[in-house]
Amino acid sequence: RLMPTQKLKLSAFLPYQLSITSNAVSDLIARAYRGKFALKVPEWRVMALLGEGDVATQRELVAATAMDKVTVNRACKALEDRRLISRVPNMSDGRSHHLALTPAGRDLYDQIVPEALALEAELEKILGSGEAKMLEAMLAQLRQRVAVLG
Fold this sequence. Notes:
Blueprint (H helix, E strand, L loop, with lengths): L13 H24 L3 H13 L1 E2 L1 H8 L3 H13 L3 E5 L7 E5 L1 H25 L1 H21 L1
Antiparallel strand pairs: 1-3, 2-3
């Protein structure tokens, strides 16, 4: 015998809620960065990582951002075309390059960081600091468990 057909209410479906919330926050950030700094979100993510750690290979950027290779490649190309990042040969691996912010890239990064932190503070204000910390922990837990399931 077949079981009764189960129903799913999309608006109450947790994966859907996570996705649309993420999209809403990304859209807010994209509007802020595109309008003022002419950057797309993937380009900003690459800059943010290079701003944190000085140099990285494209493979390291793919792993750190959870973006696919094509997206990272496009972002790096756009940033290189604007002379915001530079590419130097990787002496330990001839097939890859180290990417780093140029002085112009560092200047732009230094302009964006205060705005990015202010935007984060606005989002945290919506929840309150205690709930924001709880959400951060819950999201980390979800990512960790999903990685195990996948």
